[in-house]
């Protein structure tokens, strides 16, 4: 038990390192690429994202989760899954290859035909390392995964930048993507000693697929609705405008992902441990909501207030249309990690059926939002996206609140102090530094002043969450 606990602790730490460094690599090298490329390049990739994402989900077919869930996995299970995944990857790639012209015709973008044919190769490349990754997850070996992802991420980014410097345009993004995934697969084979045997079992395949098929269905549903905005924008508007939207989405995902990762690592294990004690559950949820609000509000408000100089300095003037989209989408960032807390509670309660129903409701709302807003421009589409996030918050909070007396209104009340402090401090900082003409000084001065001001106000107002963050950092350092 002690060894398992040590492995779990190490897993959480290395998983956090993996996600943090991967995001940092994507952000830093993404800025360099964005300065070298044009919005149209990103828009073209955005158009085919849904097809590649769905293809990869079909190839994986939920088998990874099935293998992880199965306790007595053996060489027969692994080899059967490996060969099945590889065969499916070839079939899926052939479908992509022969439908690439239809995809290009759908968007009226001839270049997409070649892009789909080349980018689609990733389906085969990624399938080669599915089992290696799965085995590492079962061993709770997140250190190896972190090393692989970081090395491949840096390598792929450098290759992409090299191609961009030599004027390859959108193909720079393609080669970055393919080279990163190729290096990932190679490194997983090098750092994992598992090799397939020439054996195959239909019985094993059926057992795994019974579980995996349910995962596949939910994964396909999630992937489709996560990327539906890209399809609609790509079809109705220019690739340039889709490029602006994808860049705004990338910026707003950073705080949402970072905060959600921290909260999920802390919240879910605690909820599972005390799920039968409503008083303790409410206390944990309340603490989680407050901690999330303490972290997410200053990040989101900073994105909203400093979006213009941030985009101008980091991405240059050609990306300025991204500003208004980023400011709108940043509002939705606030609700994303809070929704994660409520869904964590529902799942910890064992109500996966309720979670699925809520996801379906959320997807229906997404379709309605798109149907209402798509005619009125990108800004309105972004507002529709944020509206769905807000409604989703109250929906999730309502149902989680039925188990414990902690409704959406009460959650908002707990979040209010952090929102007010963030707004006052950030706007005040922006107003003070606005007197300086230099945009770099304005941005850096505003960010530093906002951060110091928020920490000082938190200390003066005795926000307990400030001490919680200090304790988390101390614990990580000691480990």
From TrEMBL:
Transmembrane segments: 21-38, 44-68, 80-103, 115-135, 147-168, 215-234, 295-316, 322-342, 354-374, 380-399, 415-433, 439-461
CDD domains on file: MATE_tuaB_like
Location(s) in or outside the cell: Cell membrane
Membrane topology value: Multi-pass membrane protein
Record key words, sorted: Cell membrane, Membrane, Transmembrane, Transmembrane helix
Location, primary (coarse class): membrane
GO cellular component: plasma membrane
Protein family per UniProt: Belongs to the polysaccharide synthase family.
The name this protein goes by in its record: Lipopolysaccharide biosynthesis protein
Organism: Aquimarina muelleri
Higher taxonomy: Bacteria, Pseudomonadati, Bacteroidota, Flavobacteriia, Flavobacteriales
